[in-house]
């Protein structure tokens, strides 16, 4: 029996799914992180191997696959992808006839559109936009880390909110509820204390800097301030949503996708929850009135399995895709 494996690797966990050539899901396991930026390349590799062996065992087989697709967060460039592929190909504990390693946006896109044309947009702790055409052309925007370009991510919204708060406090900016809200949340009373809180004395872990996730968690207060009628918070959110639309527009333009047929799959805590969910749809439809916006119903690991089947030369008929979806839900 031919076996195909799709892997969805993240910063906290990795899901591995083994399927047969007719789309039947035979085994799925959850293991530790495989994002190299989170746990390092060696630990990421070992977690991948654990998942591959365990999922194959569930399927009643050795870890020998006709094709494998790895969609891994943190694999953002060709050199990192090549290093992952080489290490996996050289590991004697597993065997692949065909193997691809890419960023996890590829799995998300396949979960939304199969191997057809479409664009996906992520806006959660980080943000990124990726699109692919049916003939295999692809392009992506954003997602270059929170220091550089994670526009409209939770971290970005929090950073913009903190900037507005201190500018209001020292007289450079408009008055905003964010000053009192965020100063109270950070347990500070003076503007100058914010540097110590951010860089030296986290509330959760005194004596160390606040983590990216701790700062990102402050984004909810920007949304709450907007819902309370705060004008500055509204400007922050609307500007951030416009940044997301810019990301989508750049991908669509690069891939020559016609505006009247644009399809967009969205995911992530920022973009799926209010008030940003409504604000984004308003901004997106103002620029692309006929765009179809939806939340993918299949998880990224199913998209990874679709990519593995395609890589292995399996024709993705409606019957294969339907069986893949139904049997995954039954696992």
Task: Provide an overview of this structure.
By secondary structure, this protein is of the alpha/beta class. The protein folds into two domains: 3-103 and 298-330, 2-Layer Sandwich (Nucleotidyltransferase, domain 5), CATH 3.30.420.40; 116-296, Nucleotidyltransferase, domain 5, CATH 3.30.420.40. The protein has helices spanning 36-39, 41-58, 78-90, 105-113, 154-170, 177-186, 193-199, 212-216, 219-227, 231-254, 269-272, 276-287, 300-311, 318-330; strands at residues 3-9, 14-20, 25-31, 64-65, 67-72, 95-96, 99-102, 118-123, 127-132, 138-141, 263-267, 292-294. Strands 3-2-1-5-7 form a five-stranded mixed sheet, with helices on both faces. It has a five-stranded mixed sheet with strand order 10-9-8-11-12, sandwiched between helices. Strands 4-6 form a two-stranded parallel sheet. Strand 9 (127-132) and strand 10 (138-141) form a beta hairpin. Helix 4 (105-113) packs across helix 13 (300-311), helix 5 crosses helix 6 (177-186) and helix 10 packs across helix 12. The chain starts with a strand and ends with a helix.
């Amino acid at each position: 029996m031919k076996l195909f494996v799709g892997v969805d690797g993240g910063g906290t966990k990795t899901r591995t799914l083994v399927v047969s050539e007719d789309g039947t899901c035979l085994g799925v396991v959850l293991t530790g992180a495989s994002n190299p930026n989170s746990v390092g390349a060696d630990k990421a590799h070992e977690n991948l191997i654990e998942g591959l062996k365990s999922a194959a065992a569930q399927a009643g087989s050795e870890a020998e696959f006709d094709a494998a697709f790895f969609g891994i967060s943190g694999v953002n460039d060709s050199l990192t992808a090549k290093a992952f592929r080489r290490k996996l190909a050289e590991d004697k504990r597993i065997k692949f006839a065909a193997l691809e390693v890419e960023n996890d946006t590829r799995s998300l896109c396949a979960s939304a559109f199969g191997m057809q044309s479409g664009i996906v947009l992520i806006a959660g702790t980080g943000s990124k936009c990726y699109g692919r055409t049916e003939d295999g052309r692809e392009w992506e925007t954003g997602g270059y880390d929170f220091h550089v370009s994670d526009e409209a991510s939770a971290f970005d919204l929090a950073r913009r909110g903190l900037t507005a708060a201190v500018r209001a406090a020292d007289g450079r900016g408009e008055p905003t509820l964010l000053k009192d809200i965020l100063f109270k949340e950070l347990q500070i009373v003076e503007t100058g204390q914010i540097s110590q809180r951010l860089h030296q004395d986290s509330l959760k872990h005194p004596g160390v800097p606040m983590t990216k996730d701790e700062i990102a968690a402050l984004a909810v207060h920007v949304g709450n301030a907007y819902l309370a009628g705060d004008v500055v918070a509204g400007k922050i959110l609307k500007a951030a949503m416009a940044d997301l639309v810019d990301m989508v527009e750049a991908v669509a333009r690069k891939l020559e996708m016609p505006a009247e047929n644009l399809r967009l799959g969205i995911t992530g805590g920022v973009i799926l929850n209010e008030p940003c969910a409504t604000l984004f749809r308003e901004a997106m439809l103002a620029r692309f009135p006929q765009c179809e916006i939806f939340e993918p119903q299949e998880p990224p690991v199913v998209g990874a399995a679709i990519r593995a089947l395609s890589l292995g030369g399996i024709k993705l008929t409606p019957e294969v895709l339907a069986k893949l979806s139904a049997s995954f839900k039954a696992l």
